[in-house]
Design brief:
CATH architecture of the largest domain: 3-Layer(aba) Sandwich
Radius of gyration: 22 Å
Strand content: 25-35%
Helix content: 25-40%
Shape: globular
Length: 432
């Protein structure tokens, strides 16, 4: 039903859609959105003590629920000797064992929720999760709170540059978020005239998407219009809403050339940690209303406070971070991203750079259901190899049907591996 509604929304033209886009999100997503939005606004001003108290209380609630409701958690905690643990502090939380993607995959069928969510993470390790019926209302309440720090209003028009494949169409209007979705698999020079008309007719205020995709979009605009022309094109744009990746230094320099302010955030499909980088200096501040962020051996560990359908408690995200600020009570107040979704590309036959975040995670690949790991390699433009560490029974001949690689000007080969490719330090990388 949701997919059908999205398809219908994608057919609504801007003159009609712009009025639909003005409907408040509290009407669209219900009371949960409105309540959480108010809580988020207050929580930003909380003291460290208030954040600590909220985090311990919410962790205790989800921990006690999981050990009573789910045998897999009860067994895990019994083996660890914490089945009867009373959580009163962060020291107590640290006694609870950490789970990872392998644990989540093993026990996935023991849970059931309203939404099935799939992720590959930064390492290409496919895992499925269940989300509860209110997960999107909470998610958008937090996301809009972040964007509003930069001055965003939900009625503002934006360009979404996130790796969407629209076939031959250069862009498409989406009234749900009042945005024109850019087809990042086409080069701007091939539809420059249409893009010029779009900016001339519409008041585009924001770019929203992966930093690597927005960076590539700007480069293509410079190629199509020149620097002066690109400055003229972007004159109405107020800033950038940067998702999923940390903007690398060379990307920041390019954004600064056009006076584009931005805000970045860290989040993931599992919905355990959501943190914002308001000052654009790689210091991410987690929402205490969303989940608990911890750091163990350089890994970001997250606990979702709200998903009682499939609780993820002290879940290893596999993302590498370092703590930059800790409260007096021992809670992580800020962290910096060391590695993770760093904007790797491959090149197509014409030298166009395709962000792997968009290619692998911006599409719905059936391979996520049968693969333990997905990685990609390239030695020359226009040719690439997808390496799949697959479950038993998957053969090379069937791999191509499990990937949506339409409208990508690259010749792909497929190889099944027994084990994923790792670095000398044992780390999994998406591009190998």
């Amino acid at each position: 039903m949701l997919k059908q509604l999205k398809n219908i929304a994608g057919q609504i033209p801007y003159p009609v859609g712009k009025w639909l886009a003005r409907v408040p999100f509290s009407w669209r997503l219900g009371k949960v959105y409105g309540r959480m939005k108010k809580v988020c606004a207050r929580a930003i001003e909380w003291s460290d003590v208030e954040r600590e108290q909220c985090s311990v209380e919410k962790f205790r609630a989800i921990f006690e629920y999981a050990r009573k409701k789910f045998p897999c958690y009860r067994e895990l905690y019994e083996k660890a000797g914490v089945l009867d643990l009373e959580v009163k502090s962060f020291a107590d939380i640290a006694k609870v064992p950490i789970i990872d993607k392998a644990w989540a995959r093993k026990h996935f069928m023991e849970f059931k929720g309203a939404y099935r969510l799939n992720t590959g993470g930064s390492s290409g390790e496919p895992t499925a999760f269940w989300g509860d019926k209110d997960c999107w209302a909470r998610e958008w309440a937090h996301m809009h709170t972040i964007w509003e720090m930069l001055g965003y209003d939900y009625r503002d028009l934006k360009l979404a540059i996130r790796g969407r494949n629209l076939g031959r169409r250069p862009f498409s209007y989406n009234p749900v978020h009042n945005e024109y979705i850019i087809n990042t698999y086409l080069n701007v020079k091939d539809y420059a005239a249409k893009l010029t008309r779009l900016f001339a007719k519409r008041n585009v205020k924001w770019f929203h998407g992966y930093p690597s995709s927005i960076y590539q979009f700007i480069l293509e605009c410079e190629e199509a219009y020149g620097n002066d022309g690109t400055h003229e094109l972007f004159k109405s744009v107020r800033g950038l809403l940067l998702s999923s990746e940390f903007p690398l230094p060379y990307m920041k320099e390019k954004f600064n050339e056009y006076g584009l302010r931005w805000i970045s955030w860290y989040g993931h499909t599992e919905m355990c940690v959501l943190a914002y980088d308001k000052d654009c200096d790689n210091r991410y501040r987690p929402f205490a209303t969303y989940g608990l962020a911890e750091v163990e051996n350089g890994h970001l560990i997250g606990t979702s406070f709200h998903n009682f359908e499939m609780p993820l408690i002290r879940y290893d995200t596999s993302d590498l971070v370092e703590v930059t600020k800790v409260s007096a009570g021992g809670m992580v107040e800020e962290f910096a991203i060391r590695e993770g979704r760093s904007g790797d590309f491959i090149e197509d036959k014409h030298g166009k750079k395709i962000p792997l975040t968009a290619l692998i995670f911006g599409r719905h690949h059936k391979a996520f259901d049968v693969a333990d790991y997905i990685q990609i390699g390239q030695t020359e433009p226009g040719k690439a190899t997808l390496y799949v560490t697959a479950k038993a029974g998957v053969i090379n001949a069937s791999l191509s049907s499990l990937f949506d690689l339409s409208n990508v000007n690259v010749d792909f080969e497929f190889k099944i591996l027994d084990q994923p490719v790792r670095t000398s330090l044992g780390k999994l990388k998406l591009r190998v």
